[in-house]
C-alpha cells in the first residue's frame, strides 16, 4: 500500500495508531452516510416524482389527432428524399423512447446519418372517450399522418409499432416506399418470447377482466407491473444495486433518471384495441396467416413488396428473433430487397441502446436514404 493509499500514514507512534484508525473510520462512515443519502434521494425522486418524459430533439407539431400527435424533426431537407415516419411502441409507455436524450436518441441518429425528413407518432394515452377505439382507428389516423407528410413514406416500426406499420403497408402498399421493423412481433407464434407465453397460457377472460378493471381501458400501470413481473430480480434488486454503485457518477445518475422517468410514466390503451391485438394478432396470428381485416379489407402480408429491413436482438426475450425474421416467409418482398440484421443486446436496447445506435442504426439510415421519391 502506498503512502497515498494508507489512511494511517504519518502516524508512527504506537500510541497514536488507534486514534488514526478511528479518524479514518469516521471519515469513511461520513462518506458512506453521504452516499446513502444521495441514493435515497435519487430513489424517492425517480419513484415518487414522475414528470412526463420530454423529447430530446427539437421538433414541431404537424397535427394533433385523436390517437397521436404527429411530430416533425426535419432539418434542411433534400428535395428528392422520401420522408421517414417512426412508429414507436404503443405498449403502455410514451413514444419518447425513440428520442431518449441527446447522445442516445434514435431520432438524432437518423438525422446524423443522412436523413433530413424525419417524423414520429407521439401516441396519446387513451381516455374514456377512446375506450372503444380499435386497430382500424389507429390505421386510419396513420393514413392521415402519411398524407400530411406527402402521401408516401418510409416507415420505421419499433416493437408493436412494427406490426402496425406492416398492417398499414399491407393495406396501403402504394403509400410505403420502404419498411423497417425492429424487435417487432410479426409472426407472434414463433420463438419462445415472454409475450407469446402470456398470450398462449392465459385465457381471454383474464385480459377482459383487466380491461373491465380499467373501466374499458387497459391501464398502463397494469402493463408496467406485467413487464416487471417478467424480470422481478432486475426491477426489485439489481437496478438499485447498480444505482448505488454509481451514485457518485453524475452522468450515470442523469441517464438513470431519464430512463426511470420514461419507464415509470405510463399510457393507457383503448380496451377494444388491446383485446383485438391479444386475440387476433397474438393468440390467432391472423396477420401472418393473411386473415386480418384492416379498414374493411382482408390484408395479405404477401402484398408487402417494398424494400424490407428486419432488425432483431440476440438477447431479446420479449420479441425473439424468429418473430421478426419469419416475416421473410410470408411477406412478398423478394430476398434481394430484404436485409436481416441480428443486433447484440435485448429488446429495449434495440431502440435506445448506445451499442445499437452506434452499430446498427447508421446503416439503416443510410439504407433508407437510398430510397428516392
Describe it.
The protein has one domain: Rossmann fold, CATH 3.40.50.1820. α4 links the parallel β5 and β6. It is globular. It has 373 residues and is of the alpha/beta class. α1 (17-48) runs parallel beside α9 and α5 (194-201) packs across α10 (271-283). It has helices at residues 17-48, 106-111, 135-148, 160-171, 194-201, 204-213, 220-230, 232-245, 250-264, 271-283, 286-289, 321-325, 327-330, 349-352, 354-359, 361-369, and strands spanning 60-64, 68-72, 84-87, 118-123, 153-158, 176-182, 217-218, 269-270, 292-294, 297-299, 308-313, 338-343. Helices cover 45% and strands 15% of the residues. The strands form three sheets. An eight-stranded mixed β-sheet has the order 1-2-4-3-5-6-11-12. The protein contains 16 helices and twelve strands.
Amino acid at each position: 500500500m502506498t503512502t497515498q493509499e494508507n489512511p494511517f500514514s504519518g502516524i508512527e507512534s504506537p500510541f497514536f495508531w488507534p486514534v488514526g484508525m478511528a479518524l479514518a473510520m469516521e471519515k469513511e462512515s461520513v462518506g458512506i452516510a453521504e452516499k446513502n443519502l444521495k441514493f435515497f434521494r435519487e430513489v424517492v425522486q425517480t419513484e415518487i416524482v414522475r414528470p412526463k418524459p420530454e423529447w430530446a430533439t427539437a421538433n414541431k407539431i404537424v397535427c394533433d389527432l385523436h390517437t397521436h400527435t404527429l411530430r416533425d424533426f426535419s432539418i434542411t431537407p433534400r428535395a428528392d428524399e422520401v420522408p421517414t415516419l417512426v412508429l414507436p411502441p404503443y405498449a403502455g409507455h410514451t413514444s419518447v423512447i425513440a428520442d431518449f436524450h441527446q447522445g442516445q436518441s434514435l431520432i438524432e441518429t437518423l438525422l446524423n446519418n443522412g436523413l433530413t425528413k424525419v417524423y414520429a407518432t407521439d401516441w396519446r394515452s387513451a381516455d374514456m372517450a377512446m375506450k372503444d377505439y380499435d386497430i382500424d382507428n389507429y390505421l386510419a389516423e396513420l393514413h392521415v399522418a402519411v398524407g400530411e407528410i406527402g402521401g408516401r413514406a418510409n416507415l420505421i416500426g419499433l416493437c408493436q409499432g412494427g406490426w402496425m406499420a406492416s398492417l398499414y403497408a399491407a393495406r396501403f402498399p402504394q403509400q410505403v416506399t420502404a419498411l423497417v421493423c425492429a424487435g417487432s412481433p410479426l409472426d407472434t407464434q414463433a420463438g419462445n418470447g415472454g409475450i407469446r407465453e402470456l398470450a398462449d397460457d392465459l385465457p381471454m377472460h383474464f385480459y377482459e377482466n383487466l380491461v373491465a378493471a380499467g373501466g374499458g381501458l387497459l391501464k398502463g400501470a397494469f402493463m408496467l407491473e406485467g413487464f416487471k413481473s417478467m424480470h422481478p430480480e432486475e426491477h426489485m434488486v439489481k437496478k438499485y444495486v447498480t444505482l448505488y454503485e454509481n451514485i457518485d457518477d453524475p452522468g450515470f445518475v442523469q441517464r438513470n433518471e431519464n430512463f426511470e422517468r420514461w419507464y415509470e410514466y405510463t399510457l393507457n390503451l383503448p380496451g377494444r384495441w388491446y383485446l383485438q391485438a391479444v386475440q387476433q394478432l397474438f393468440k390467432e396470428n391472423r396477420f401472418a396467416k393473411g386473415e386480418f381485416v384492416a379498414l374493411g379489407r382482408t390484408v395479405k402480408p404477401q402484398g408487402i413488396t417494398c424494400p424490407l429491413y428486419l432488425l432483431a436482438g440476440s438477447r431479446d426475450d420479449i420479441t425473439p428473433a424468429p418473430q421478426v425474421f419469419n416475416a421473410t416467409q410470408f411477406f412478398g418482398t423478394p430476398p434481394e430487397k430484404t436485409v436481416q440484421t441480428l443486433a447484440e443486446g435485448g429488446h429495449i436496447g434495440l431502440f435506445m441502446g448506445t451499442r445499437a445506435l452506434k452499430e446498427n442504426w447508421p446503416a439503416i439510415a443510410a439504407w433508407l436514404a437510398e430510397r428516392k421519391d
